[in-house]
Amino acid sequence: MTAAEEEAPARGNGGGSEGTLELRDIVKTFEKPGQGQILVLDEVDLDVETGAFISLLGPSGCGKTTLMNVVSGLIEPDGGTMRRGGRDVSPDDLSLGYIFQEPRLLNWKTVAGNIEFALEARDVPEAEWDERIERYLEMVNLGDEGDNYPTRLSGGMKQRVAIARALATEPEIMLMDEPFSSLDEITARDLRQELLDIWNREEKTILFVTHDINEAVFLSDYIYMMNTDGEMFARRDIDIDRPRQYDDPDIAQREAELYTEFHEQVVD
């Protein structure tokens, strides 16, 4: 039985009607100087259910980002399939937005200019740019920063711009690769809550990479757990009512349970 089949599917929060994105038996190897072929993803299965918040959880170097990049099309797998609605699909068939660990803003462009750059790249009609920029900057509480430059923004504000930029292209699926890991914990907590508010309001599907168990439990509908051998060893549903609070004992208990499981699988 695969990790994707281990537990009953968690229900998403709405969204589109295309159905679950199903990755099966994904394999990826890389050539490493002096070591030959290194297996990074070992027949990995992943279900990305419409409208759900899904986390990929595991230690650094376990293949989480590689799997995310397979979904996005930045990396081509050596084997496996991607299907949706009963047919084979490629990343080009998907409506995706990608938010990286670092904001990757263009410092010589204004905040609004950074979003315009993404809209132009996605062939969004120019007549829609102003409305989208205003809407999504307001959504991340940066409505007055359109004419400012990234170099004048704090780390948290830069990441908010990156989120607004991705949202402005109006993707169905948001890919987020440890977007809060370089922020202080107070700012990260604020942004996690803002992200959940946006997710709930906009009915996006989010695939989120993290090595932080507490973060994964707080955010997710369900979590896929990876080990250092490139294997997906479990899927775990997070059946905690929303909205969630950081001091909820249920979150602490679920975090402790997952930590114990990780310790058995990864450390031992």
CATH superfamily of the largest domain: P-loop containing nucleotide triphosphate hydrolases
> Secondary-structure element sequence?
EEEHEEEHHHEHEHEEH
The share of residues in helices is 25-40%
- Could you give the count of β-strands? 10
CATH structural architecture of the largest domain: 3-Layer(aba) Sandwich
Name the structural class. Answer: alpha/beta
Q: Strand arrangement, largest sheet?
A: 6-7-8-3-9-10
Total domain units: 2
Main pleated sheet: 6 strands, mixed
Q: Indicate the overall shape.
A: globular
Q: Concise description?
A:
This protein has 268 residues and is an alpha/beta fold. The protein folds into two domains: 21-94 and 172-267, Rossmann fold (3-Layer(aba) Sandwich); 108-170.
What's the structural blueprint in terms of helices and strands?
Blueprint: E1 21-32, E2 36-48, E3 53-57, H1 64-72, E4 79-84, E5 87-88, E6 96-99, H2 111-121, H3 129-139, H4 155-168, E7 173-177, H5 185-202, E8 205-210, H6 213-219, E9 222-226, E10 232-237, H7 249-267
Parallel strand pairs: 3-8, 3-9, 6-7, 7-8
Antiparallel strand pairs: 1-2, 1-4, 4-5, 9-10
Helix pairs in contact: 2-4, 3-4, 6-7
Region (Disordered): 1-20
InterPro entries: AAA+_ATPase (IPR003593), ABC_transporter-like_ATP-bd (IPR003439), ABC_transporter-like_CS (IPR017871), ABC_transporter_ATP-bind (IPR050166), P-loop_NTPase (IPR027417)
GO molecular function, one term: ATP binding
